[in-house]
Amino acid sequence: MASQRLLEERKLFRKNRPYGFVGKPLTREDGSIDLTRWECRIPGPEKTAWEGGCYPLSMAFPDSYPDNPPECKFPAGFFHPNVYPSGMVCLSLLDNDTELGGQWAPSINIVQIVQGIQELLKSPNVYSPAQAPACELLKKDPAAYERRVKEQAKKYPPPEDEE
Predict the structure, then answer these.
(1) Strand, helix or coil for residue 38
(2) Confidence (pTM)
């Protein structure tokens, strides 16, 4: 079921890809497509400290997708209050434990996931931190936090080729 759904998602993403976003399945060494592993790029939201960056994100879909959400990761060490030091994204949209506030639903698609993560960049949840240093800096010195985010944006320039 996961493969069929991901094949449809790939078609949907190609057709309705939001401007500046990139998302595609990995190609295996033998040339075949691995629909369960995607490499994405998420543009920094305009008029925020994130603007100008295009942030790499990997998505790993379990065999139980869409009943269970994908694992979404930025590079290790990514600076954001809701990203673990490993790069793992902490977002209720990607959590299926409803008792703990998880909002995952099988109807959520890849476009909604990447847009939700883009929204998280500009609107971090300081009540559910995954990375204490980023969260503390945001709370104690928002201007220093923004400077740090702008520096990080320089590490991830938009790709030359958007496809």
Answers:
(1) strand
(2) 0.93
The pLDDT tens digits of the residues spanning 4-52 come to 999 999 999 999 899 999 999 999 999 999 999 999 999 999 999 999 9
Active site residue 135: no
Nearest Cα to Cα of residue 153 among 50, 35, 15: 50
Look up residue 150 and give its amino acid.
K
Distance separating alpha carbons of residues 123 and 121, to the nearest angstrom: 6
d(CA 105, CA 118): 19
Domains of the chain as residue ranges with CATH: 2-155 (3.10.110.10)
Which SS3 state, helix, strand or coil, does residue 115 take? helix
Residue-level length of the chain: 163
pLDDT tens profile 57-71:
999 999 999 999 999
Identified catalytic residue from 40, 72, 90, 135: 90
CA gap 13, 111 in Å, rounded: 6
Distance between CA atoms of residues 154 and 66, nearest Å: 34
